[in-house]
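Go through this one:
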Amino acid sequence: MNKIYRLAIGAILLGITVESHASLVSNDLLGSGDGLLTYDSDTKLSWLDLTATVGQSYNQIMAGFGGYTSNQGFRYATENEVAELFSDAGVSQTSWVWGYWNYNNPGYVANSTLVSLLGITYPFDGLSTYSIGLTGSNTFGTQDSHDYAMVGYNNHADYIASLAIGTLENSTNSSNVGSFLVKDVSNVPIPGAAWLFGSVLVGLVSFSRRKALVPAHTKE
């Protein structure tokens, strides 16, 4: 029985390890299945989909559009926090990198996965696809404005990402730009592998007790 315990626990712990490396998880905000949040287990930040704020200016968001900053505890992410999100997603800051139609290349996979989580704000003629959002930083120094960051890819498996590709005035609306809004999460969801670990342990203990009650068979 000890061998069974060791094998089972080893396999489950391996599962927990794999789970911990998958740091970005889609969660719901308003209702089951809406997928409006992306939780980063490394930073303990929950990111609102860019599509929830696309077309709204910085001023409109700060004035309480959707209740995100006024009632739901969201705030603008700093450029450094967006950089950490990109890093945790495996996205590198880079100008266009050619993928040569190799849809398995790591850069394309990372970028397209993050865009899928954050939501598409700018589909360009069905060729290039982007997630673009305002940050809470102003590295360009332009008065009353904020930087916007982007991550994208195209149908050739090329990919691109930038933390400060440009700036928008605080009163400017863009139909292709959302806002990188985050909130700190205190109650961290229990990973599925950890739940499985506990369940299997209970099962093994139960099995061990039942086995102890069964007489051992002997050869005739």
